[in-house]
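B., you asked whether I could sanity-check this one before it goes into the benchmark set. Here's the sequence:
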Amino acid sequence: MKSTFTLLFSFLCLAAFGQVRYLDAQFEVNKETDVTYGTNIGVITGMPAPEELKMDIYTPKDDTVTTRPVILIAHTGSFLPPIINGQATGSRNDGTVVYMAEQLAARGFVVAAYSYRLGWNPVSTDQDVRTSTLLQAAYRGIQDTRNCVRYFRNSVALENNPYGIDPDKIGVAGIGTGGYLALGAGTLYQFEEVTIDKFISQATLTPYIDSTLWGNIYGDTQALACIPNYPGYSSEIAFSFNIGGAMGDSSWVDGDEQEAAISGVHATSDIFAPYTEGNVIVPTTNEFVVQVAGTRAAVEYANQKGNNDIFNELSANDDPLSDLIDIQKETDITLYTMQTLKMGTDNFYAFATPFPQGSPWDWWDKNVLDATVAAINMQLGTNYNSDEIHMSGLATNPDMSPMKGQTYLDSCFMLMLPRACVALDLGCYTTSKTKELLTASDVNLVVAPNPASEAIRFTVDNEEDIQSLRLYDINGKLIRVHDVNNSEYLLQRDNINSGVYLVQLVFESGLLTDKVIFK
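And here's what the prediction gave me:
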């Protein structure tokens, strides 16, 4: 007859192939709206003025884990409000954003769908004005993204961790325009990288980004148009995921330790953001603005520079798109720009779309669009036409619908979630099959007291330290994740119920699973 431990261990191994936290939806979702995460100087009204920065926070309902990873979601919109940007989308209320946030929270993530400062001059006949104001908008958006990251770290340090997060496990996912923020927040760590030649005005020979006006790249210093929020906290993120946006310049990827691991998707026929390196064409006017690195190029640079080395731990068995990615890596494609290249690269997935479909994950409700346009026209005295905006959207997404958009996003999750698990060290069993299974005698493990009432100490006498500790309940549900990086760790009981649990200790060379009991 099998022992209780053997049965539990067998169940836990099976859980790796069944319902797994952070990979599979298993919670209902709570949503808190209009949370203020900071204040900074905005320009959307034409005159610089302080602007409150808002977000909606999605959390898994009735979840007992208090060290959860955070994913920030940046919406699309060409750095202008919906309707004014000529589009039906462009806010944190977009169907794409809400669906993505709900699906991630249902898997156990804390999700913040955040708004960022908007405003630039797309209708100027002067390309220098278009380029400078757009780059400044992107710069402010990256600052706001980092402000939002610091907000959560501040909430842990000074507000008793109200959202139950792990401040060391934060990632950003960007949709369309939001992709510029996700990639920028993950890679832009030197101000000199926004003063290279293409970011210099050819008319005035001065940089488009002036830190004495706009503040530093983190947005945590006082400047004429920058109010610091939560200075003193790190702005770093561990994971950046892009859905159809781009990076300001490929030189931002240096492979430095503080830079994020990068993954993403792109549609082959996107006419607004380049698939590889190319030009940005803004939907408002269809005019050229600046040359950037699209998702495929950004991910490939991250692969080459070492940002994505951590993904090498991901086995093909744990990567649902692995076979398709391998096929795309060997497939030649000629883009509508007449560029010919291999369709794919590691940690990237291409959506082969008919020209000119570029954002098949987007959708909107025509009735809501009609009402929104009417309200804006009444408020601003404008004459926007909802039918024209609707038809313009259908030109690049002709069969848009919630079902279509959600299907594309579900495919995005197949690429994103395993890599989020690895980059954020979430213990999703995405690396278990590549690591040796260790025994207590291999590392001279001592667990005491066990059973315990208040706390259990884990000590190893081994050349390797314990990297992290993961605690699972009898059903294989992840209860706790703790970074250790030491030869011993004291696991406090806190609100853990009485019962039998499995503890998994992660070492560089392998995994050790043992049974513990809280009385």
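One thing to flag: Confidence is low (pLDDT under 50) at residues 1-18, 430-434. Otherwise nothing jumped out at me.
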